[in-house]
Structure formats: C-alpha cells, structure tokens
Amino acid sequence: MLSARKKLAAKVMKCSPKKVRFDPARLDEIQEAITKFDIRQLIKDKAITKKHSDSTSRGRARKRLSQKRKGRQAGQGRKKGKKTARLTKKRKWINKVRIMRSFLKELRDKEIINKKDYGILYKKVKGGFFRSKRHIKLYIAENNLAKK
C-alpha cells in the first residue's frame, strides 16, 4: 500500500517514485497519509525525503560557460573553419566602412577638414581606398588636408 503513497509523494516533489525515500521509523505515519496535504506535511517534517541524483555535476560546465560569455577560451586552438565563417567578408566590410565614415563625419563637424575634402575622402572610403581609420589619418597628414 506504500507504493500509492510513493507515487503521490513523487507527484508532490516533482520527481520519479524511485527517488522518494521514506523514514523507516515513521512508516505508520506515512501509511495513514491519504491526501497531498498530508504528504506535504510529512515532507516538511522530513519523514519523506528525495534521494539525490547520481548524475554528473554541471558545476565545471557552468564555470566554462561563464568564462566563454566573458570571451575567454576562444583562442586559436578553439577555432574551427575559415576566418570568414565567423565574420563574413561583407559584415567585416560594413563594420570597417561604418567606422571610417563616422570618423570622417567627426572631422567635418569639428571643421578639421572642409566639405569638399570630406566628399573626396568619403568617395575614397566607398571605393575601398583606405584600409583603416589610421590609414585615413596618415593620408590627411601627407596631403595637408587638416586645417588645424
């Protein structure tokens, strides 16, 4: 008759009946329990307990995951596939061009370069003339485009 109590306790504790453990000294109390409320009381009084699972601990896995979220453990040995598999050529281009265009706008707004030079440099960025923001700085310095 205890198997029915075991099933009821399993339902209350949200586990398998295999995981439910009865205190051998209080079996008569457990036998009298009929409702879920009774079972809950016995769980509270520690007459009915849940066996711990013997599965592999996820502690290490959680630690690794938190490190990965911080950007760790992503070195050269972890990478698979081509460079373009992680960041497509187009996305790389978009990022690069956005940085350069925002830099040119900054220079124009601060009146370091005039509007005409801004237009020329903007077109050069579009055409892929510049490699990076640093390259633009170098070009401006070499061609004396900066006012200040």
Mean pLDDT: 95
Return the CATH class of the largest domain.
Answer: Mainly Alpha
CATH topology group of the largest domain = Non-ribosomal Peptide Synthetase Peptidyl Carrier Protein, Chain A
The major pleated sheet works out as:
2 strands, antiparallel
What is the spatial order of strands in the main beta sheet?
1-2
- Estimate the global geometry from the Cα principal axes: rod-shaped
Identify low-pLDDT runs: none
Q: What value does the Rg take, in angstroms? A: 34 Å
The CATH architecture assignment of the largest domain turns out to be Orthogonal Bundle
Structure class? mainly alpha
**Could you tell me the number of beta strands?**
2
Helix content: 55-70%
Order of helices and strands: HEHHEHHHHH
Give the termini distance in whole angstroms. 93 Å
Helix count equals: 8
Give the domain tally. Answer: 2
Proportion of residues in extended strands: under 5%
Polypeptide structure, described:
With 148 residues, this protein is mainly α. The protein folds into 2 domains: 2-50, 50s Ribosomal Protein L19e, Chain O, domain 1 (Orthogonal Bundle); 85-142, Non-ribosomal Peptide Synthetase Peptidyl Carrier Protein, Chain A (Orthogonal Bundle), CATH 1.10.1200. It has helices at 2-13, 27-32, 36-44, 59-69, 83-86, 89-109, 115-126, 133-142; strands at 20-22, 48-50. The chain is rod-shaped, with a radius of gyration of 34 Å.
